[in-house]
Amino acid sequence: MKLMVVGGAGYIGSHTVRQLLGAGHEVVVFDNLSSGHAQALPAGVPLVQADLLDPAAVKTALETHQPDAVVHFAALIEVGESMRAPARYYRNNVVGSLNLLQAIVETRKIPLVFSSTAAVYGTTDAVPIPEDAPLHPESVYGETKLMTERMIHAFHVAHGLPYVILRYFNVCGAAPDGTIGEDHPNKTHLIELACLTALGQREKMMIFGDDYPTPDGTCIRDYIHVLDLADAHVLAVEALAGGKQDAGTYNVGLGHGFSVLQVLDAVDEVTGRPLNREIAPRRPGDPPRLVADAHRIVEELGFAPRFTDLKEIVQTAWNWHRTHPHGFEE
Ligand code: UFG
Questions:
Q1: Are residues 19 and 42 in the same domain?
Q2: pLDDT at 30
Q3: Cα→Cα distances 249→12, 270, 273, Å
Q4: What atom of ligand 1 comes closest to residue 192's alpha carbon?
Q5: Is residue 297 a part of any domain in this protein?
Q6: Which ipTM was obtained for this model?
Q7: DSSP one-letter code for 52
Q8: Contact 118, 129 (CB under 8 A)
Q9: Among 38, 125, 150, 279, which residue has the least CB neighbours within 10 Å?
Q10: Distance 30 CA to ligand 1 centre (A)
């Protein structure tokens, strides 16, 4: 198959491009490089450097490259920033996705795989969280993802657009060979920050709250390795190509979680450089426990994550950060 990967130069996009190529598919990347990195793409992968906010460019790309399906990652992803700059988030994430949907139905009506997030659930008592849990996003970021999910569904009803929506839990890790990995302009993710702290780029790790109702008092998250997540996209694309007719929304996680302290202990062990730690106040908006009910994707798409050992997950992140302490800007 030929896939157009929108946002393919980003962290998750670039790992997915690799897995798609490895599964024998052809790929063209559409990315505005606002936060992605052309260096993250394997040699020979065509890059259309353009913006989803330019509807003509989107249509031209689909007409020129004639893909069989689209995988859509392109979005702004920072929860805090989304609260300070809502217009940017609604415009980029919602209007950008609307332009893509419109271009798809006007040109080729090909299947779409969309990157959504566990942030659509908001704070919930459900442990683990099933896909049909109530949807109450607490950030503008989560709201833009939910609005896009609903637009996609409306295009499915109105135009027969086939789709799969994947709701990611805490994506982490890197390609084990250390050649590509996480490199966002603003670092907020636990494992990335811990690795950069181990490299001496920060003085200490702040633990945001140790008085949560969890066994060790710190928050629990479902850490899913970026290559397993990339494989979930390959499965989704292949299910759609195989004629999967029913549109599907799937959590992507391991189905069990690790606490902040467990993660930091794993980083200490992997790096051999024990982190300075400090207990800090709770971070606003952090629910105590976010764990996926991942049965649906396992049962319906045959998802079988390979990275289930926390130390192994951290080791892949460390391989990347150790060899690229300043990301792609070496
Ligand atoms: N944490 C710390 N110290 C830090 C950074 C994080 O204690 O320096 C804690 C957080 O408070 C949280 C946990 O580590 O309890 C994980 O935090 P991250 O920032 O790595 O990830 P989040 O759980 O906040 O959010 C991520 C994505 C969201 C997605 C969510 C789904 O960024 O988009 O996972 O579970 F919705």
A1: yes
A2: 98
A3: 18, 35, 40
A4: 20
A5: no
A6: 0.97
A7: T
A8: yes
A9: 125
A10: 28
Residue 317 Cα to ligand 1 middle (Å): 16
Closest CA to 77 of 5, 182, 162, 195: 182
Is the shortest distance between the CB of 189 and ligand 1 below 6 Å?
Answer: yes
pLDDT tens string 78-98: 988 999 999 999 999 999 999
Q: What is the pTM of this model?
A: 0.97
Which active-site residues does the annotation give? 141
CATH number at residue 312: 3.90.25.10
The answer to whether the CB of 169 is under 6 A from ligand 1 is yes
**Number of domains, the chain:** 2
Closest ligand 1 atom number to CA of residue 141? 33
Q: Decide: 70 and 113 in contact? Cβ < 8 Å.
A: yes
Q: Which among 252, 246, 247 is positioned nearest to 231, based on CA atoms?
A: 252
* Of residues 294, 270, 241, the one with CA closest to residue 110: 241
Statement to judge: residues 145 and 60 lie in one domain: yes
- Whether omega for the bond prior to residue 130 falls within 30 degrees of 0, making it cis, is no
Ligand 1 contact via 207 beta carbon (within 6 Å) = yes
- Residues 6 or more apart whose Cβ sits within 8 Å of residue 243: none
For 161-213, write each residue's pLDDT tens digit. 999 999 999 999 999 999 999 999 889 999 999 999 999 999 999 999 999 99
The residue whose CA has the least distance to atom 34 of ligand 1 is 170
135 lies in which domain range? 2-171+223-252
Question: Do residue 248 and residue 283 come from a single domain?
Answer: no
In short, whether 105's Cβ falls inside 6 Å of ligand 1 is no
Residue 245: per-residue pLDDT? 66
Query: Which atom of ligand 1 lies at the shortest distance from residue 219's CA?
Result: 15
